[in-house]
Task: inverse folding
């Protein structure tokens, strides 16, 4: 049985500004940092699977209510 090689590709689509206190326990509250939101894409054999679509610029700003900066669109990320 031949097992195909798989690749997991993280694709950054947007960076968002969040409070560092979300990532550190009881420290750094009020300090803003920029973190990427990632789309996770799996490929191997004859399969290509989008595991998580991450967040779009519009979703980050309008739904999440955070300051965001676009890196690339969903379509651009998949083309890469």
Result:
């Amino acid at each position: 049985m031949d097992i195909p090689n798989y690749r997991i590709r993280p694709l950054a689509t947007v960076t968002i500004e969040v409070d560092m206190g979300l990532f550190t326990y009881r420290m750094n509250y009020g300090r803003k940092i920029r973190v990427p939101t990632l789309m996770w894409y799996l490929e191997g054999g004859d399969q290509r699977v989008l595991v998580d679509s991450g967040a779009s610029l519009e979703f980050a700003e309008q739904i999440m209510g955070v300051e965001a900066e676009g890196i690339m669109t969903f379509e651009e990320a998949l083309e890469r």
User: Anything to note?
Assistant: The chain is about 15% helix and 45% strand. The beta strands are 6-19, 32-44, 47-52, 68-70.
